[in-house]
Design a protein that fits this description.
The protein is α/β, with parallel strands linked by helices. Helix content is 32%, strand content 17%.
């Protein structure tokens, strides 16, 4: 099946979902705006990851086949916009990483980051480990486990989560992983303000400063190139009162002996 760039890609039917050629053909050509979100030297890795999602990701049930035609805008660019909000050389934990969104995208976009992908399901961590190896990323660690299993083990400069849980539950799971001067960055849609209001008491009880809703990608959105994203930023009200991990260390690369695989990054 030859992909015609002049026609919209067609989502594969059930009989086609094991055929890599058919699956790959459903992935549209990269949009021009991709080069405004990712640096030129990282574009080949983004495209290789997109093909992995469109093929192995679909076959393994990590990405629905109907998502393939909108992988660029809805998933990869969407997650790539988050990269600009992270400080330099930060340690990052992506909770409920799934197929690597946003964690793997951040690791691709920002090689200065040290990213830990936290995911409890074996089939997902297997995919993540294979993706890290194939992409040659040396700044990623994959940990199979729940976020609360790492409480008291390690903290990170930034903790991210996308489409994992409502903000009140997410804060309970993720804030114990946030370093004293770090932040939880929860990717949310139009419900961000409502979730902040609903989680206010939980966040106050946990010791958070008031949540801040931020919009990223507004400049590109003004050009009609992308939809902006909304994140909820949660940080500690009094960093001096935050307890450090009882075991492990900040940004521990292999907390609790979780599975990990790190390879030399492609240049």
């Amino acid at each position: 099946m030859k992909h015609d760039d002049t026609a919209p890609p067609v989502s594969p039917g059930p009989e086609d979902r094991a055929d890599p050629g058919v699956l790959r053909a459903a992935l549209p050509a990269p949009p021009a705006v991709l080069a405004e979100v990712f640096s030129a030297d990282r574009l080949p890795l983004v495209q290789e990851y997109a093909e992995l999602l469109a093929t192995d990701g679909v076959v393994r049930g990590l990405i629905g086949p109907r998502e393939t035609p909108r992988l660029w805008e809805r998933h990869l660019i969407n997650c790539g916009l988050l990269a600009a909000a992270l400080p330099a050389d930060a340690t990052v934990a992506d909770v409920g990483s799934g197929a690597g969104l946003p964690g793997l995208v951040l690791a691709i976009a920002r090689p200065d980051l040290q990213v830990t992908l936290i995911e409890p399901l074996l089939r997902r961590t297997t995919f993540l480990e294979e993706a890290v190896a194939q992409l040659g990323l040396d700044n990623v660690t994959v940990v199979r486990g729940r976020a609360d299993a790492l409480h008291g083990v390690a903290t990170y400069d930034v903790v991210t989560a996308r489409a994992v849980a409502p903000l009140d539950k997410l804060a309970t799971w993720c804030l114990p992983l946030v370093a004293p001067h770090g932040a939880l960055l929860a990717m949310k849609g139009s419900s961000a303000a409502d979730e902040v209001a609903a989680a206010a008491e939980t966040c106050r009880r946990l010791g958070c400063a008031p949540a801040v809703v931020e919009e990223l990608g507004a400049e590109l959105a003004a050009e009609g190139a992308v939809e902006p994203i909304r994140i909820v930023r949660l940080s500690w009200a009094d960093p001096a009162r935050v307890s450090l991990p009882l075991r492990g260390r900040r940004g521990s690369r292999d907390p609790r002996g979780g599975s990990s695989r790190r390879k030399r990054r492609k240049s």
